[in-house]
Fold:
Amino acid sequence: MEKHIQKSMAWSAGDATRSFPTKYRQHPEFSTYTVHLNYVDCVRWLGNLVLSKSVEDRIVLWRPEDDTNRLKESTRLLQEYRFCDADIWFIRFALDFHKNLLAVGNRQGKVFLWEVNSSPPHLVAKLSHPTLRLPIRQTAISYDGHSVLCCCEDGSVVRWDRASASTGDPSKGPPAASAGPGAGTSGGSNEADIEGMQ
Structure:
């Protein structure tokens, strides 16, 4: 495998008469059934750690253990980000670019936002909107962590922006809804329900 990785670094499509020879690997380097008891619908790397989610109302932070015996599944569960009403398939979570914030929706139209680097997990905010009642299938967080997007089962997209506090610092204060439900529609006057954000 190492030889193929080295060849791929030096290979140039312009000089080749055919495509790069793909290395076929039949068996995975690591596999486990110990973290979740059901289908996994979202997974992300967090350095050498893994964040994964199933239909169990939780996102799990865990580490695959480096074990020389490949027949033995070895994982270390580090912590869980618990939330409610996410017991259906295909609800995806998101991390911001700097991997400081974690956002996930649920089937009741709520978005949960955590600080990733706190232990125990710190729920920063629970975001909602009066018209959001359907499952939130995907979330996204802006590069600077000041905006959160979600897309819902009905095709609507909602955006929350962090409101400026009286100090004028945009990094302080809770996010407020700046776009209402409806694919591509704008509803700047819509207000979001926010719990817990300081």
